[in-house]
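Extended Data, panel c. Modelled sequence:
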Amino acid sequence: MSVDQAVQSLAAKVRELKPIIETEEATKTAFIIPFISTVLGYDVTDPREVIPEYTADVGVKRGEKVDFAIKSGDDFRFLIECKKIGEPLRLDHANQLVRYFNVTDTEFAILTNGEVYEFYAQLDAVNRMDEKPFMTIDLSNIDARVFPHLEMCTKTRFDSETIAASAEQLKYISEIRKVLSAQFKEPDADWVRLISSRVTSRRMTAQNLEIFTKLVSTAQSQFLKDEANRRLRSAQDFDDAHGEVSAPETATVVEEVSETATSDIVTTEEELQAFGIIRAICCSEVPVSDITLRDAKSYCAILYKDNNRKPIARLFFDRKVPRIVFFDSAREPHVFDLSGVDEIYNYSQILRERCMALRDE
């Protein structure tokens, strides 16, 4: 079972059983042990790999226990601290995890309540657990973009240097997105000064700062509305042009769409999510790095080795009903409408067979 399938299966189990789970031990048994086994791929019955209730004697602290230690030989891979499902995850409630992490050769840790899994590293200081996770997996709201990174954490793919490099990117992208989100909601003085310096030479006195705070806030709001309207117009134009044709005719149109990039191209959140799902599915057949995205004005192409002549799929998301197009060995397109991005998982076998064919060409 691939990582994406294992995560989806566990998420369904969490949805079903969450209302009846009342203790931390039940959370471990129902959700966390299956995560270690089916998602990360470790043998939970082998104490050489997975050690429950690992005793952590640190300084004057004796007999403290970490819920799970995952090892490979003498090396720690993960320390895992568990909470009851539904409990908020806070590091100040997991002191023993932080302390033990900081005095061992462990490079990665997981804090989880069975539904949310926070992955920690030591990016900010050696042998000191970061205060913020580099990756979060929420089974109630799965972000498919994390699957390639989660794949690196599995038993068969584990490589600490690769995970650390990926972790640094994930952590900073996540933090930057939070900063941008906060500034778009309520810009602070530094943000206003930065933006204003690009459009005026006025000195930012208290009065001017107040004026430009309102202007920046208004401009950002208008930008978001304009971008939303642009997408709606694009979707409407696409439907007007192609909405009445049959599936085979649509497929022909899809093949003939120009792939020339323009400055109007915007790779959307949904396209990135779809790309993440496709990479997660296809990485069982080809290296993740061989699955690439190339956006165009009318569609978003998923290619093998960034080769325009080796398409894996095309995404048509700038329309009322999102559409995905797959290609067979003869490069004939097969068109499917989607009710949501997650529906791409229904076509996992098609994607894997396409990747195998491209790999063996």
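Confidence is low (pLDDT under 50) at residues 241-263. This feature is highlighted in the accompanying rendering.
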